[in-house]
Design goal:
The protein is mainly α and 164 residues long. Helix content is 81%, strand content 0%. It is elongated and about 50 Å long.
C-alpha cells in the first residue's frame, strides 16, 4: 500500500509542471497551474487527518481515510490517461491530475501512521520507518528530475502508464 501512494507522490511532485506544460501551456503558466492543485491537496490532507484522528478517538477504524483517497488516486489517473489517450484533452487531463493529487496527499500521512502504529516496540518502529523512507529512493528521484534533458521527458501517457 505504501508504494501505491509514494510512487504517484514522487511522480506528481517531480513532474507536475512538465505534465501541465505538455498540455500546451507555457512554462510560467504551467508553474502557476500547480498552485491550486497543491493548495487544495494540502487543505484536504489536513481535513482528512483531522477527521481520521477524531474517528480513532471514537474507536472507529482508520481504513476509510486511506482507502477513499487511494480510490481518488485511481480515478484521477484513469481520467488523466483517458484524456491523454484521446487526443490530449487538456481539461480532462488537468482534472485527472488534480483529483489524483488530492488523493495522494491525504492518503500519505494516514498510511505512515497506520504502518508505524502496527510496529510493536520502539526499535522495530525505528527500523520500519527507515525501511520505507529509504534515502536511495529519494536520491534516484531527485537525480531523474534534475538531470533530464527537455527532449528526454516522457510523454504524459508514457509517464502515467509506467508509474502506476
Amino acid at each position: 500500500m505504501y508504494w501505491g501512494i509514494v510512487c504517484p507522490l514522487y511522480g506528481i511532485s517531480l513532474f507536475l509542471p512538465t505534465i501541465i506544460k505538455q498540455l500546451g501551456y507555457t512554462s510560467t503558466t504551467a508553474q502557476l497551474l500547480t498552485i491550486p492543485i497543491y493548495c487544495t491537496a494540502a487543505v484536504l490532507a489536513i481535513i482528512v487527518c483531522w477527521c481520521s484522528d477524531k474517528a480513532a478517538k471514537r474507536g472507529a477504524s482508520r481504513w476509510p481515510y486511506v482507502f477513499f483517497p487511494m480510490l481518488a488516486i485511481l480515478i484521477g489517473f484513469i481520467m488523466a490517461i483517458s484524456g491523454s489517450a484521446h487526443g490530449g484533452v487538456p481539461g480532462v487531463v488537468y482534472a485527472g491530475v488534480f483529483i489524483a493529487t488530492c488523493g495522494i496527499y491525504p492518503a500519505f500521512p494516514g498510511n505512515i501512521t497506520w504502518i508505524s502504529n502496527n510496529l510493536a516496540g520502539s526499535y522495530k518502529r525505528a527500523a520500519g520507518s527507515t525501511y520505507w523512507g529509504s534515502p536511495f529512493s529519494y536520491f534516484s528521484l531527485s537525480w531523474d528530475s534534475n538531470f533530464s534533458r527537455d527532449m528526454s521527458y516522457p510523454s504524459l501517457q508514457t509517464y502515467l502508464m509506467n508509474n502506476n
